[in-house]
């Protein structure tokens, strides 16, 4: 170890001398990176540092104030405090524990339960604090599917929006489910089918619904059953009506992901997991309005635009943008008609306007 590094460690020791810290390797030069710390915490999740701990895995349903969480533990619901160990490892307090997290709770100290570990997340959605774009707030984790709600009419079907939500879902590693609502307003089903043929072809799950007539509602329920879903889509497409049909009397905050950056409109209220009576959860997220495609995603869009994954690996250049490059598999697929030219137009529009 270099002399300089030694000094640094000693400094840490002094600052932390009143804290029972089992492994000083954790405090290395990368300590400022919350993400890195998450990884460290996760990889150490099987180590127990205190004697007599009795850990059981539960799921966070809601994050309350003062480091308290409401947790589903087996068939029970309990309240637990976020343990000091987690606070040490993850200094970004807004991301310590979030709705949907699987956590290990110490039962030995019941009824004063403590969360001792956060298990690694499959995925998560964050937003950045308004006015402070460095501060990441993780809204929810371990989301099974993003329900992309679009209406056929009123407002009129906009496949460009579906593309954007599909990219967002892919970026965040969440399975998309397309719901075309208000099909009672459709008098030409062939036209509708033609409009969604591309998404069917690339293998995306699509359900046509109308809570007004009941069409597709059983199929939708089946797709939501035993999964944790988040509804996205523009306002007026019928998300609340769909949810109320499936679960009458559910106390919704506002389950909406908007593609628009409605600055200042989001509330600070946390997300909450609401159980469906038929199994699974609705992730109700009032503060999620600022989740949107932005410039930082520009490099992933050529890979993640719906349907491009089949072709992108065959482009000559690994970072091909499919615009004017030589030997571009996407451009060839557009020419041969394998990729719908309208979707390619949509791709160009998104790339130009991000
Ligand atoms: N014709 C028709 N109207 C619907 C349907 N679903 C919802 N609506 C109407 O669309 C409007 C917006 O619905 P709402 O659930 O508030 O949309 P949200 O903003 O996505 O939550 C309301 O006036 C609903 O009554 C449907 O299947 N068919
Ligand atoms: Mg609504
Ligand atoms: Zn290409």
> Which cofactor or ligand species appear?
guanosine-5'-diphosphate, magnesium ion, zinc ion
How many separate structural domains? 3
Q: What ranges have pLDDT less than 50 throughout 5 or more consecutive residues? A: 12-34, 255-268
In what order do the strands lie side by side in the largest sheet? Answer: 10-9-8-11-13-12
Mean pLDDT, rounded to whole units?
A: 83
Strand content: 15-25%
Named CATH topology of the largest domain: Rossmann fold
Radius of gyration: 23 Å
N- and C-termini, Cα separation = 46 Å
* CATH homology group of the largest domain: P-loop containing nucleotide triphosphate hydrolases
**Helix content class:** 25-40%
Q: Count of helices?
A: 10
Structural class: alpha/beta
The counted number of beta strands is 13
Task: List strands and helices in order, with pairings.
Elements: H1 3-15, H2 34-43, E1 55-63, E2 68-73, E3 76-82, H3 84-89, E4 102-106, E5 113-118, E6 124-128, E7 136-141, E8 145-151, H4 159-171, E9 175-181, H5 189-201, E10 205-208, H6 217-224, E11 228-232, H7 239-246, E12 272-275, E13 281-284, H8 301-304, H9 329-335, H10 341-353
Parallel strand pairs: 3-5, 8-9, 8-11, 9-10, 11-13
Antiparallel strand pairs: 1-2, 1-4, 2-3, 4-5, 6-7, 12-13
The chain binds guanosine-5'-diphosphate, magnesium ion and zinc ion.
């Amino acid at each position: 170890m270099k002399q300089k590094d030694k000094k640094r460690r000693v400094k840490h020791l002094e600052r932390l001398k009143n804290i029972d810290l089992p492994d000083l390797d954790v405090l290395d030069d990368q300590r400022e990176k919350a993400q890195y710390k998450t990884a460290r915490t996760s990889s150490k999740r099987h180590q127990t540092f205190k004697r007599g701990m009795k850990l059981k895995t539960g799921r966070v349903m809601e994050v309350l104030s003062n480091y308290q969480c409401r947790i589903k533990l087996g068939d029970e619901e309990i309240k637990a405090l976020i343990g000091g160990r987690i606070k040490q490892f993850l200094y970004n307090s807004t991301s310590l524990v979030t709705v949907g997290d699987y956590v290990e709770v110490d039962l030995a100290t019941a009824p004063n339960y403590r969360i001792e570990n956060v298990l690694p997340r499959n995925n998560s959605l964050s937003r950045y604090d308004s006015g402070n774009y460095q501060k990441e707030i993780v809204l929810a984790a371990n989301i099974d599917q993003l329900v992309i709600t679009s209406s056929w009419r009123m407002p009129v079907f906009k496949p460009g929006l579906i593309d954007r939500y599909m990219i967002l879902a892919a970026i965040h590693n969440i399975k998309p489910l397309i719901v075309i609502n208000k099909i009672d307003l459709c008098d030409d089903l062939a036209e509708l089918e033609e409009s969604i043929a591309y998404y069917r072809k690339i293998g995306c799950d699509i359900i046509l619904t109308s809570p007004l007539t009941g069409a597709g509602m059983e199929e939708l329920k089946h797709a939501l059953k035993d999964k944790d879903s988040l509804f996205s889509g523009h306002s007026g497409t019928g998300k609340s009506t769909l949810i109320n049909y499936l679960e009458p009397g559910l106390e919704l905050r506002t389950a909406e992901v908007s593609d628009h950056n409605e600055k200042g409109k989001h509330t600070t209220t946390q997300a909450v997991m609401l159980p469906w009576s038929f199994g699974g959860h609705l992730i109700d997220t009032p503060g999620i309005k600022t989740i949107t495609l932005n410039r930082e995603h520009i490099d992933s869009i050529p890979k993640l635009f719906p349907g491009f994954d089949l072709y992108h690996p065959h482009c000559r250049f690994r970072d091909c943008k499919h615009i004017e490059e030589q030997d571009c598999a996407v451009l060839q697929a557009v020419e041969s008609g394998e990729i719908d030219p309208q979707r390619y137009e949509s791709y160009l529009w998104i790339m130009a306007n991000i």
